[in-house]
Design a protein that fits this description.
Order of helices and strands: EHEHEEHHHHHH
Strand order of the largest sheet: 2-1-3-4
Structural class: alpha+beta
Distance between the termini: 53 Å
Number of strands: 4
Strand content: 5-15%
Shape: globular
Largest sheet: 4 strands, mixed
Number of helices: 8
Helix content: 40-55%
Length: 221
């Protein structure tokens, strides 16, 4: 059977979640880079595969799937059933799913912050847009009290999802260190497969946005 085709762009935080999943499952995949900065997702060839023209997308021997969290859960369920990355226990899985929804909420809250930085909006306007992101991080920090990972004491795809997004937030100035549980978790994940690859993608975003930042250091400075 041919390896999974993985349409990927490492700058994209959503695309980095399946990549982290692939690395942690040690799956054999064919990586096909779709450079959205060059509008490659709009090519007729890719549009035939994914009419929504989004990355990530996978082609598992004719089974086409997009949306990062769906891909991550599919990869574990199909290629490594029973893995603790997406536990089979229904209650544990429900907690993972809940954290994935929270991560999606944080991703949506991050977009206005990025737009504010890119457009160099006034400081008070910018700060007002960071409040929702910080509130979600505060809630996550509370949920993690007394546990190692975001959904318990085992690494799951929810951790991989948050890693992709929080590493991006860190690179655009979020003060992660004000949340002690998240800061410790962030450090803990440095040794997982794919960590450095994910960080490289986040740093590219930071390098793009940093010159436009009207503040030094973190959002709180």
């Amino acid at each position: 059977m041919a390896p999974i085709k993985f349409y990927h762009f490492n700058i994209s935080p959503p695309s980095r979640l399946p990549m982290l999943t692939i690395r942690n499952l040690n799956l054999d995949v064919e990586i096909i880079v779709i450079d959205t900065m060059k509008k490659e997702q709009m090519s007729p060839e890719f549009m035939k595969i994914n009419p929504q023209h989004t990355v990530p997308t996978i082609d598992d021997n004719g089974f086409i799937l997009w949306e990062s969290r769906a891909i991550a859960s599919y990869l574990v369920s199909a290629k490594a059933p029973g893995s603790s990355l997406y536990p089979s226990d229904i209650k544990k899985r429900a907690i993972v799913d809940a954290r994935l929804f929270l991560d999606q909420e944080m991703q949506n809250a991050t977009l206005p912050v990025m737009h504010a930085i890119y457009n160099q909006e006034p400081k008070d306007v910018f700060i007002s847009k960071t409040e929702k992101v910080y509130k979600i991080l505060e809630n996550l920090n509370t949920f993690m009290e007394g546990q190692k990972y975001v959904a318990g004491n085992e690494l799951t795809i929810a951790d991989l999802a948050f890693l992709a997004n929080i590493s991006t937030l860190y690179e655009i100035g979020a003060n992660i260190n004000k949340f002690k549980n998240i800061a410790a978790w962030f450090k803990r994940l440095e040794n997982i497969p794919g960590y450095q690859e994910n960080l490289e993608g986040a740093k590219v975003i930071g390098e793009t946005f940093r010159p436009k930042m009207t503040f030094k250091g973190t959002w709180d400075d």
